[in-house]
């Protein structure tokens, strides 16, 4: 059985139906991408998984635990999220040490000292960053801290919401390489949400294209590379991500 | 024909550690063409665009050996001359329509304000302009407030406003970065048509090398306040500077390729 099983997920905020019947199954160790434009509901799917958005209808099972209104502490130890904006997702008045020790305290881990040092080392920051504040770090360094915070509980699943879209291209490459390495070292399962098809094609074996809260189609990386998309919307996304083509050159 | 001459442009901000030069001797000439300025955050690309319009935020200071637009010396321009240029002959489009539109005025009123023409005439021009930027329901957008529009619509309204005065030069600072990819291409088509049909000059500032390479005629690559390479957009793949090569190589591709992605190894010499 799949590690994460989403069946006919609906998310509504009052009148607004943000997600309208999305299904997906993600196996252990897989990296699964969700692509779409703003308002497509791609981030809402992730937020519904980790409990930041209500599941209005449908069934979601994560590591054999059917998700209800509340998530157990064990769930949060297994499933962690990395957010888009590294400037907004770290507390400006907490040192990196405090950011990293909070989840350890909540989940009652004992050897905090060594875990913090190990987590900093794994994301390529080193112990020298431990007592700094977020404003003393660059965007790429902050995103590494956010990844360290997620990994410090040794989760099995990482939910990545546009982890590199606020970063420069050269920093994006470093963060993507870091995520890639951590996945192969630890056998993590990723769900990565992005508007950038190239990032998803690089990181994920399978991907789901979403539009207006619905799933448009599911593709494998190979079929994406072969440009064998069945839906017109996916083809439009593909041609738009190639760059600009003068009018008339494309139908 | 050369529209804009920039020679040895420097922008400096005072800091506690002494003056910080963020643009360090940028020179270029612009005709009626699409010129791309690419670089990462902090490369000085946006400050270059602002300095051309005399919009360097104080306490920053911009100096140049020569900064001239259509024969007018911008270094010595009086406030009166600036008022005649800004918005009328040189316009600027910023990245995010949320911050550059007036939130308490309808789009229509803002467009009419930009037209500097009798009201009835301005109204007709505004509607025509909204139509020209591919807004399907111009009457609705005309009466709408900025918060009632999506990001793509807002950015198109912004461009319509900048074009009301039919400028000779448009400085577009990341005009499409806040937009979805499919909308981005539509906005670029509009800009493209304006360059082709009206002979407008366009400075397109962006961090997206792939986009600039496919859209512009010529590209300046900036690093640490300097232009490290200038080349025709078509020759981008043959870039010679290691920074440009590094920027191109570190982008993931749909076709796949290297794993891990090559990262950019910065050399101290580039910033000298």
UniProtKB/TrEMBL annotation, chain A:
Domain ABC transporter: residue ranges: 4-237
Keywords from the named record: ATP-binding, Cell inner membrane, Cell membrane, Membrane, Nucleotide-binding, Translocase, Transport
Organism: Cereibacter ovatus
Localization in the cell: Cell inner membrane; Membrane
EC number from the UniProt entry: 7.4.2.10
InterPro entries assigned: AAA+_ATPase, ABC_transp_ATP-bind, ABC_transporter-like_ATP-bd, ABC_transporter-like_CS, P-loop_NTPase
Function of the protein: Part of the ABC transporter complex GsiABCD involved in glutathione import. Responsible for energy coupling to the transport system.
Gene Ontology biological process terms, A to Z: transmembrane transport
Catalyzed reactions: glutathione(out) + ATP + H2O = glutathione(in) + ADP + phosphate + H(+)
Domain of life of the source: Bacteria
Membrane topology: Peripheral membrane protein
Protein family: Belongs to the ABC transporter superfamily. Glutathione importer (TC 3.A.1.5.11) family.
Name assigned to this protein: Glutathione import ATP-binding protein GsiA
Lineage of producing organism: Bacteria, Pseudomonadati, Pseudomonadota, Alphaproteobacteria, Rhodobacterales
Enzyme class: translocase
Coiled-coil ranges from the UniProt annotation: none
PROSITE patterns xrefs: ABC_TRANSPORTER_1, ABC_TRANSPORTER_2
MF terms in GO: ATP binding; ATP hydrolysis activity
Pfam families listed in its UniProt record: ABC_tran
Main localization of the protein described in the UniProt heading: membrane
Subunit architecture: The complex is composed of two ATP-binding proteins (GsiA), two transmembrane proteins (GsiC and GsiD) and a solute-binding protein (GsiB).
An example Gene Ontology CC term for this record: plasma membrane
TrEMBL record, chain B:
Major site of localization recorded for this protein: membrane
This protein's GO CC annotations: plasma membrane
InterPro entries xref list: AAA+_ATPase, ABC_Ni/Peptide_Import, ABC_transporter-like_ATP-bd, P-loop_NTPase
Single Gene Ontology MF annotation: ATP hydrolysis activity
Membrane topology designation: Peripheral membrane protein
Localisation: Cell inner membrane
Record flagged with keyword ATP-binding: yes
The organism's place on the tree of life at top rank: Bacteria
Domain ABC transporter: 4-249
Keywords in alphabetical order: ATP-binding, Cell membrane, Membrane, Nucleotide-binding, Transport
Similarity comment: Belongs to the ABC transporter superfamily.
PANTHER family per the UniProt record, alphabetical: DIPEPTIDE TRANSPORT ATP-BINDING PROTEIN DPPD, OLIGOPEPTIDE TRANSPORT ATP-BINDING PROTEIN APPD
Protein name per Swiss-Prot or TrEMBL: Peptide/nickel transport system ATP-binding protein
């Amino acid at each position: 059985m799949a590690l994460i099983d989403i069946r006919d997920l609906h998310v509504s905020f009052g009148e607004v139906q943000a997600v309208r019947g999305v299904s997906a199954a993600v196996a252990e160790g897989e990296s699964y991408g969700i692509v779409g434009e703003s308002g497509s509901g791609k981030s809402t799917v992730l937020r519904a998984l980790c409990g930041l958005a209500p599941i209005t209808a449908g069934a979601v099972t994560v590591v054999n635990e059917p998700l209800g209104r509340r998530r157990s502490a064990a769930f949060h130890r297994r499933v962690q999220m990395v957010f888009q904006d590294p400037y907004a997702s770290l507390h400006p008045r907490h040192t990196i040490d405090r950011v990293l020790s909070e989840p350890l305290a909540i989940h009652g881990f004992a050897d905090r000292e060594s875990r913090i040092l190990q987590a900093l080392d794994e994301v390529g920051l080193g112990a020298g960053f431990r007592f700094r504040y977020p404003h003393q770090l660059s965007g790429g360094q902050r995103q590494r801290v956010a990844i360290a915070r997620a990994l410090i509980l040794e989760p099995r699943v990482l939910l990545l919401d546009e982890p590199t879209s606020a970063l420069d291209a050269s920093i994006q490459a470093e963060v993507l390489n870091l995520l890639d390495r951590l996945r192969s070292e630890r056998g993590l399962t990723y769900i990565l949400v992005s508007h950038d098809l190239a990032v998803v094609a690089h990181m994920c074996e399978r991907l789901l294209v979403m539009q207006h809260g619905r799933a448009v189609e599911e593709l494998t990386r190979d079929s994406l590379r072969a440009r064998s998309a069945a839906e017109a919307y996916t083809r439009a996304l593909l041609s738009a991500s190639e760059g600009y083509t003068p009018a008339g050159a494309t139908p | 024909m050369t529209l804009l001459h920039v020679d040895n442009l420097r922008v400096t901000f005072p800091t506690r550690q002494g003056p910080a030069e963020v643009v360090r001797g940028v020179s270029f000439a612009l005709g009626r063409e699409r010129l791309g300025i690419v670089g990462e955050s902090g490369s000085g690309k946006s400050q270059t665009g602002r300095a051309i319009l005399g919009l360097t935020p104080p306490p920053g200071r911009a100096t140049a050996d020569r900064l001239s637009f259509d024969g007018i010396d911008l270094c010595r321009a009086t406030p009166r001359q600036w008022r005649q240029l800004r918005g009328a002959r040189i316009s600027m489009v910023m990245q995010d329509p949320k911050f550059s539109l007036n939130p308490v005025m309808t789009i229509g009123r803002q467009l009419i304000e930009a037209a500097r023409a009798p009201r009835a005439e301005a109204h007709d021009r505004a509607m025509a302009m909204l139509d020209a930027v591919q807004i399907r329901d111009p009457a609705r957008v005309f009466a709408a407030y900025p918060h009632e529009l999506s990001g793509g619509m807002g950015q198109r309204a912004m461009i319509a406003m900048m074009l009301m005065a039919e400028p000779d030069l448009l400085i577009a600072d990341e005009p499409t970065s806040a937009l979805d990819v499919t909308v981005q291409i539509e906005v670029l088509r509009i800009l493209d048509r304006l360059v082709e049909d009206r002979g407008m000059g366009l400075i397109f500032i962006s961090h997206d090398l792939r986009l600039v390479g496919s859209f512009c005629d010529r590209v300046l690559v900036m690093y640490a306040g300097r232009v490290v390479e200038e080349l025709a957009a078509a020759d981008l793949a043959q870039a010679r500077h290691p920074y440009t090569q590094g920027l191109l190589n570190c982008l993931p591709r749909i076709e796949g390729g290297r794993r891990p992605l090559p990262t950019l190894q910065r050399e101290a010499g580039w910033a000298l």
